[in-house]
Design the sequence.
């Protein structure tokens, strides 16, 4: 089916077309949101938000970019907004919540004998938190270039379209983001481990 | 305490995890929840309009004729039922006496 025809069906709120769209893009969008938030439940909620926005605003879609690019832009901007919102929350409240949830998780893990070693699980969670913290320290454009470059099936050309930048600048952004991430990890390692 | 080599190895491992995240999938009820959400959006944005009545050609002609008949009968009723016994001249003289007394009456009050 031609993309134009498909978009017209979406504009007419055709549920079959939306079902097709959701099935095709739900996992890639989830992985992008997860790349920023590093929390599966939050990423899934945000993916729902992205599709809801697509459903509401598809009539305003001007077709200057492809449908795929437009949806990925929504996912990126929603994820960045969510991170900003979180940053504005009081850090103390955030850490208190984190400690409580980790303690509860450890307790649950100890009760379930068939689960992997709770200490190992906690270490994995700690590592994920560390990666999330370091990623959040990257400048916004580097972070977006890095997160998108980690997704399966997205080429640098497509990242350039999503970010509205040239291909060479994306290559350079991804390279710098990796270098910076390593530096940030080195600088904060002692605080976490 | 970890040696520098151990730290570097761990950092390599962390970088590898960051660069190669495991690909996730949505939960089984993702689509159901999403389509319920679409229903809620539709319910919110559904335009509210009054019921539109449509008439057939015959009904339209009948409505116009009924309208004309009613108007003509109302006009006829008022023109035929007007009391013609009230002579306009009598009415004028009655009120002119009350509001415009003659000069003699006015001067007699002094």
Sequence:
């Amino acid at each position: 089916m031609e993309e134009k025809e498909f978009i017209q069906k979406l504009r007419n709120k055709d549920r079959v077309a939306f079902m097709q769209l959701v099935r095709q893009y739900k996992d890639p969008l989830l992985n992008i949101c997860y790349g920023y938030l590093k929390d599966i439940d939050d990423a899934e909620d945000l993916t729902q938000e992205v599709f809801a926005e697509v459903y509401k605003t598809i009539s305003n879609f001007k077709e200057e970019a492809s449908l795929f690019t437009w949806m990925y832009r929504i996912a990126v901007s929603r994820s960045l907004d969510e991170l900003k919102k979180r940053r504005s929350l009081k850090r103390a409240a955030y850490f208190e919540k984190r400690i409580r949830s980790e303690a509860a998780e450890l307790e649950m893990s100890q009760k379930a004998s068939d689960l992997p070693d709770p200490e190992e699980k906690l270490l994995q969670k700690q590592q994920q938190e560390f990666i999330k913290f370091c990623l959040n320290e990257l400048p916004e454009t580097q972070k977006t270039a890095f997160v998108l470059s980690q997704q399966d099936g997205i080429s640098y050309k497509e990242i350039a379209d999503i970010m509205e930048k040239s291909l060479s600048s994306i290559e350079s952004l991804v390279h710098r983001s990796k270098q910076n991430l390593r530096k940030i990890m080195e600088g904060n390692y002692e605080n976490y481990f | 305490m970890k040696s520098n080599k151990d730290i570097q190895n761990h950092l390599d491992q962390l970088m590898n995890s960051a660069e190669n995240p495991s690909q996730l999938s949505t939960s089984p009820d993702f689509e159901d929840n999403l389509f319920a959400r679409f229903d809620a959006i539709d319910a919110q944005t559904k335009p509210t309009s009054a019921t539109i009545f449509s008439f057939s050609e015959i009904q339209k002609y009948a409505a116009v004729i009924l309208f004309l008949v009613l108007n003509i009968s109302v006009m006829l009723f008022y023109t035929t039922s007007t009391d013609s016994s009230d002579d306009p001249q009598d009415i004028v003289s009655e009120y002119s006496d009350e509001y415009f007394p003659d000069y003699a009456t006015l001067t007699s009050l002094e």
